[in-house]
């Protein structure tokens, strides 16, 4: 078996050497280099993405500066108009028609959507175009312009009614139908009617010399020139790779009110809405969003910036971004080129590494194979490698030399072994004969000692008990004859005495049965456990009367047992008496019988439980041993041993559970009568 195991293990070790050498040769190329490439590509990809985010952040900065420039320019132009010679000249004429004519000319020159002059009381003096209602007078920029020499500019949100009060055309231009957009915040609105306005005001003088405010604005809703100018400024020609395109968008809340993003060919994505995630970050938290985002129908590297009105409330977003796909394609192309280059280099260099490794592991495999043949029993096996000056060649030469020496030592050991085996066989045969004789003698001695001890005990018990029994039986007969006719008055008592004298005789017989149980069969019959327990109680009643012991019975057994009634009574009385002796100061004696199965065999259990002194674990282990007793002077140590023997003869078992200070419980299990 050992030789077979060795021959099986040898090839495994040979493959292990090959694999290790191949791993050493290929590890740098196939493991370390890919790991380094993976780390480098991961870092390059992260830096590439960071560069894209940095670029879109720069693009957003340009768009922000352009919007700020528009705000500043509008304020400067309105301030310049309020301070111009033409405006002062018109004011001196104190004619409203001249003022309205100047406002109309100036509005068109500056590129405003509306321009009006309002006095300090909120009354519009002149306007262009002619106002259809009264505009709001408490705008923060108007209040600021009236109290300062500097112009006030900002972004404000006009309701559709406020736009209609200025011009119905502006109100109509501001109105956009909302386009259902996936991932947007759910809404019940179908249109967006508010307008986002570049709002500017400057302090001026009303005709007649009173303070006034010159107010103008540009509506950004559907202001395609404004948004296209931002896009052309941010994404000039050749600023993005081929295939990519830049976009710019102005949002009122989360609705695109001015954009060059295409919903489909020929139509801009006006009325579409931004995703809930972007809206929450920008409008909800006031953060600038710099990340990849799905815009209408494609992924863009995107930047969103919140826009704040003159009240300090976030009212919209400024967006710039460029198509992400060309950059992803470029990254994928780069990765494919790197992978292809790695495969080509690996295919060119691995065969060279394998050839170098083969020059090492082939001689080692030859040495390993030789060792395997030797382990399998072929001591004549040799490597037969040609002599070489390297380390492997010297190892092979020394191995062949050692194998020659081992073969010679093996021949000598085999001869010595044969001689030693012959001597051992001779000595072993002599020892076996001596052991057989010793074993036979030992068995005879043990049997003799056992028979002598049992015979001595049995003879003594028979002599000491049978003589008093004979005297008692004889005197009982004399009493009957003396009493004569009155014997019927004590018939029951005489019967009980006869039964107990007979029982004493049976005990002597059972003592002999303990020594030679196979010689006694006895008469057995079916009994109800409760009836046998009931017959035992009168025999121990005198012991119960001596102490304050409460008796509790519970007969739930419905099955019968097959056993000699006297033997079963003997077992139960022995257990009951032991329980009474364990409660010298009184207690509770519980007798139960119930059906119970054990190991798939139906049967019954008779339980004798006391609340006495109990037993420790050492006593419990030895309680069924012959001649072991805890009663010192009064006990013989045979009661439980004989009881266990009687029960086992009926294929039953007695078990005990006990705890010091809390009492003991003996359980007699017997199989059900067939």
Give a verbal description of the structure.
It is a single chain. The chain has helices spanning 2-83, 85-93, 96-110, 140-146, 160-166, 168-174, 224-234, 276-284, 325-375, 391-483, 491-515, 529-546, 565-581, 617-622, 639-649; strands at 114-119, 124-128, 152-158, 176-177, 191-192, 195-205, 211-219, 246-252, 255-259, 262-264, 267-268, 289-295, 298-308, 314-323, 525-527, 549-555, 561-563, 587-598, 601-609, 653-659, 663-671. It is an alpha+beta fold and 674 residues long. Among the domains are: 60-346, Beta-Lactamase (2-Layer Sandwich); 522-671, Histidine kinase-like ATPase, C-terminal domain (Heat Shock Protein 90), CATH 3.30.565.10. The strands form six sheets. The chain has a five-stranded antiparallel β-sheet with strand order 2-1-7-6-3, sandwiched between helices. Strand 12 (289-295) and strand 13 (298-308) form a beta hairpin. Helix 5 (160-166) packs antiparallel against helix 6 (168-174), helix 10 runs antiparallel to helix 11 (491-515) and helix 13 runs antiparallel to helix 15 (639-649). It is elongated. It starts with a helix and ends with a strand. It is found in: Cell membrane. Keywords: Cell membrane, Coiled coil, Kinase, Membrane, Phosphoprotein, Transferase, Transmembrane, Transmembrane helix. Residues 460-674 form the Histidine kinase domain. One of its GO terms (molecular function) is phosphorelay sensor kinase activity.
